[in-house]
Amino acid sequence: MTEAMIRKKPGMASVKDMPLLQDGPPPGGFAPVRYARRIPNTGPSAMAIFLAAFGAFSWGMYQVGQGNKVRRALKEEKYAARRAILPVLQAEEDERFVKEWKKYLEYEAEVMKDVPGWKVGENVYHSGRWVPPASGELRPEVW
Amino acid sequence: MSSHVGPSGEPVPTSSVLMASSKHIGSRCHSENVAFLKCKKKDPNPEKCLDNGREVTRCVLGLLKDIHQKCTKQMDDYVGCMYYYTNEFDMCRKEQEAFEKACPLE
């Protein structure tokens, strides 16, 4: 049926006089709703927060320093070990080198024995210091 | 490590053997090492420092043999650990302590 037939009021002249059908608040109204901010001003102060952060930072840096001390000690141990065994290794290499060098000088003397101007079996730089041979010939399996 | 010991029963100076006994070498062969280094500093020519080098080698190899005879098991364990961990001292602390207790540094 039409709305007019359902919500009829006796003595109604037109549809505009129909009683209202609205969705409204309950009688007495709704309960009040708080929408105001309530941010409390409690907790640590700015200085307290700053000191806590600074304290955490300094404790952390102190731990970093301690850790670095430990790591440096470990590195020192390794370097001391290397320093201790360096002479043995160098001595063994010297022996091997001298043997190879003598062989090389003999080879050079034999190869150049017919060359008139070739004075000695060894001719290197003239500074007087020892210079290791740079030709790469003495360790062909390495180079 | 199966064999850091050569055929005659002496330890072969491999890297793990040398690093394991480095503290002993540093203390007991100190004078030979220093003499060799001084000679090298004066003249780096290998032919000039062969005698010092022979002294150093003699000292170190004799020391290795000595330690190996005195504390065979501890040295073997320590050298094996060093070989396994490629000469990382920090990974072999237990074996190092046992080794240094059996063969004290001096």
UniProtKB/TrEMBL annotation, chain A:
<protein>
    <recommendedName>
        <fullName>NADH dehydrogenase [ubiquinone] 1 alpha subcomplex subunit 13</fullName>
    </recommendedName>
</protein>
<comment type="function">
    <text>Complex I functions in the transfer of electrons from NADH to the respiratory chain. Accessory subunit of the mitochondrial membrane respiratory chain NADH dehydrogenase (Complex I), that is believed not to be involved in catalysis.</text>
</comment>
<dbReference type="GO" id="GO:0045271">
    <property type="term" value="C:respiratory chain complex I"/>
</dbReference>
<keyword id="KW-0472">Membrane</keyword>
<keyword id="KW-0999">Mitochondrion inner membrane</keyword>
<dbReference type="Pfam" id="PF06212">
    <property type="entry name" value="GRIM-19"/>
</dbReference>
<keyword id="KW-0813">Transport</keyword>
<keyword id="KW-0496">Mitochondrion</keyword>
<dbReference type="InterPro" id="IPR009346">
    <property type="entry name" value="GRIM-19"/>
</dbReference>
<keyword id="KW-0679">Respiratory chain</keyword>
<keyword id="KW-1133">Transmembrane helix</keyword>
<keyword id="KW-0812">Transmembrane</keyword>
<comment type="similarity">
    <text>Belongs to the complex I NDUFA13 subunit family.</text>
</comment>
<dbReference type="GO" id="GO:0005743">
    <property type="term" value="C:mitochondrial inner membrane"/>
</dbReference>
<feature type="transmembrane region" description="Helical">
    <location>
        <begin position="44"/>
        <end position="62"/>
    </location>
</feature>
<keyword id="KW-0249">Electron transport</keyword>
Automatic annotation (TrEMBL), chain B:
<protein>
    <recommendedName>
        <fullName>CHCH domain-containing protein</fullName>
    </recommendedName>
</protein>
<keyword id="KW-0813">Transport</keyword>
<comment type="similarity">
    <text>Belongs to the complex I NDUFA8 subunit family.</text>
</comment>
<keyword id="KW-0677">Repeat</keyword>
<dbReference type="GO" id="GO:0005739">
    <property type="term" value="C:mitochondrion"/>
</dbReference>
<keyword id="KW-0679">Respiratory chain</keyword>
<comment type="function">
    <text>Accessory subunit of the mitochondrial membrane respiratory chain NADH dehydrogenase (Complex I), that is believed not to be involved in catalysis. Complex I functions in the transfer of electrons from NADH to the respiratory chain. The immediate electron acceptor for the enzyme is believed to be ubiquinone.</text>
</comment>
<dbReference type="InterPro" id="IPR016680">
    <property type="entry name" value="NDUFA8"/>
</dbReference>
<keyword id="KW-0496">Mitochondrion</keyword>
<keyword id="KW-0249">Electron transport</keyword>
<keyword id="KW-1015">Disulfide bond</keyword>
<dbReference type="GO" id="GO:0006120">
    <property type="term" value="P:mitochondrial electron transport, NADH to ubiquinone"/>
</dbReference>
